[in-house]
Amino acid sequence: MSTDPPGSTTDNERSRHWITDVQVTPGNNDPNCEFSAKMFVDDELVCDMSAIGSTRPLHWSGLLLCNIYPASTLTVRLCKCIRNKPRYFNSSPFTISEADEETGEATLELPKAVWVITVKSLTPAMANQVFPDELEKFNAIEGVYGGLQSEATLKYLFKYALQFASLVAKALPESTTKVSFLIYMKAWELLDQQAQLDETVQAILRGLTHIQDILDIVSQASDSMLANAMSLSTEAIIGILALLEDASAYIFNQYTMNDLARVPSEHAEASDTYDVEAYLGCLEELQKAFYSSWSPTGASFGATEAENNTPSDRSHPEDDAQTTSDESAKTGWYEIVNLLRPINPSGYDPDQACLDGTREVLLNRIITWTQNRENAQTFMWISAQVGMGKTAVATSLCQRLDRVGALASSFLCQQDDANFNDPLILLNNLICDLAMKCPAYAHQVAIAIRANPKLYSSHLSLRYEGLVKRPLQKLGRLSMPVTLVAVVDGLDECGDHIAQGKMLQKLYEISRLVPWLKVIVTGRPVPEMKQYFKPTCLHKTVVHLHHHDASPDIRAYIEGQVAHLAETEHWPSESIDQLCKMSCGVFLWAKLAVQYVKKSAFPTLPHLQKVLSNQKSPVTDHFDTLYASVLETAIDNDEKDIKVAYLRCIGAILVISAREPLAAPDLQHLLLAASQVDQRTLEQVESNLGPVLLVPDGQCITFHHPSFQDFVTDPSRSGQFHIRLDQYEEEPAAYCLQVMQRDLCFNICQLETSHRLNRDIADLNHRIDSRIGPMLKYACTHWIDHFIALPTQALVESIKRFMEGPKLMYWIEVLSLLGCIDIALAGLSKLSALDLGRFSDWDLVVYWAKDAHRFILSFYDAITTSTPHLYVSALAFAPRKCPTALRMRPHFPNTITVARGGVSGWHPCIKSIVHPHVIQTLSISPVGRKIVVGYPDGSLAIWDT
Questions:
Q1: Is a pLDDT exceeding 80 seen at residue 334?
Q2: Could you tell me which residues the WD repeats occupy (predicted)?
Q3: Euclidean distance between the first and final Cα of the chain, in Å?
Q4: For 252, what's the count of Cα atoms within 13 Å in the CB-facing half-sphere?
């Protein structure tokens, strides 16, 4: 059995064979007797089955992978042991490939015994039978990986493996992929039962993002394309399926007792560990092999050829146009070029393309989309903020399309060049390019010009109508081997916003005129583009570059440019890592930084240090100019109120997003409440700041690069757009306190008892998600930081009201449920250390904060282990004179009280710590903030005091 299609294996090739069960009949009724067995494939021991007594059937089950040849044989040595006296029985060899395909069973007889051994394998025929039911189970899995709780949802990354196998099985039904799918499902069923995953399994799951990238590409292909395209990538697909089978087997072994666990071969070292690095490296190499072999244009061509082999009606004008002689066609487009005079040079510049091997997922995904004629979407907008590599992506697309004869036209708009920002010139170039690419179109345009010579010098709308729309409408039935694509880069730089809107409408209409032509435009998410795009372009798709992690590609670029310099000039070891980190996914930053460093006439280290320390340089100057331009365009300086609103929103976004990523709706809600800006104004601000602001659906709002914050917070760089961030901390702080006063309540997650530990409550995460919303989580974790950044008398009064009532207890309760009690301790410690004597009642707030800190610390273990013990234990057994308990107990009259004994004040011992070993040494840091102890085994433990 193999992952290859049937018939592809030769006598010298190994294939993968899965054994799932071994059964011995009749059973064992003798309590003094045990049976064990050893399995051999081609005389090599592959499995040692443990002894089974009389209390259970003689049946071993699990997963055993054997790499076999077509002529490979299997034998079993059965051991019967009575009172520690073994007796062995060897089966006759059985050729594995002769097992029953429908049942997977092979019967092995023992010549000198009454027992019969049945070995069951997972065959393609069996997999074919159960696959529909297993596929239905897979489709019923509802969970997804991602969001702000990635650790809790990590297991759902395994769905990528299942989805990949299901797609391959659909595209290549004759392959044995369904066997792989069933192996994966066995692993998934165990994964789904685990509350926690070990580090190795987590690493395996994270590696499956490579499969996610492949699925992102494959999802753009039609069913008819899929089979042809996958057949070209068979070798890579087989490798991926096999690697995922091995990973699934490891997961299976980790979480269940596998009776059929494989015995390591003679040449392999016995080890329970899984080589994660080898797995990830192999997966990455297979991913690259898939990319290099994936050819949607070849697949599309195959499908088109099949269509063209059917008889068709040749009575249409466009069919006649196909028979136009080469000389006539050449005359047609030569005449068009002569009249319209396209820019020279025009088209794409290969020097601006992405680095070889980078952006592979994105480029393959888009190329596949272009060749899918079954998809109703014919128009694509590649949207990205400034500097994220739109032009490089557009150029690479043009290169790839040109290579397979699918590039209809390409044009790069440039705002600062009159030759490249004129919509008429753009249209002329498109007409000329398409005429040279498609003789039938050139023929129709030549006819139109001869009929009306004024068309070539007419205004935009008339020229478009006469030389683009009408000629293309006559070619709807034209057969093309590949789908042609027109690429327009930087449409947001083509003329003014009115011209951009008109060109967007016309380019979209072009993509709908004939089935063999699609259009791709790139541009920043400026209001003009979004305004025309949403209502006008119905059959479209949008690709947001920030959704595609460019970090590996940027690293490849930086290392390719400066790795040799770093070595020869002895850069600090972390320099390249720092450059990659500081780029934050923005290619332009990486490019400018590299250019500046390499440009130095002297050793590069001084320039490098300037970049890494974010000092003024050509890198910062370039981005400062970009940001100033964006803000000047967005903000009308004649309207002071508008400018104030923009700066207020920018300041609030920066201070809030710096604390914690919030999903767009939640951040918008907080901004509306905290910055006193209405909904319409906020939406307009977000839209106008699109070139520098990321507003992804369901994800956090952030500025696209940290350099924007550096710009607006430095008055020497931002001038009139300067923002003092501390001025925008008061409003979020006030809103956080309002949210807590409004939403905090007793037993917020409705825990039924204090007898169960938090970790034993199966649905605790669901309760937390449903009852503690993102805004309340944010408020509970960040209100102190916002207050410390800009304390005011009003905020002090609000904090006093918050701490004097039961809301303080409810706050501690929420942080206990979230596993964030350390945030409460750190925050209260910060409050206690503030010197704000100028504010009324501040001394009282400090007094309460210090006692609340001691209260939590003293009952830390109880509060963190089981949240109800905040009330049942901590509040009940706190000292009689504890200020926190004195204020809280009246609000909880049913709390038990100590009738006799007890203590009146806090004990000098703050906390008792349990140690795993005897303490051998102890040391306290000079300032008393850390304690370190040493154990006899040489290990150390460190605590913050």
A1: no
A2: 912-945
A3: 62
A4: 23
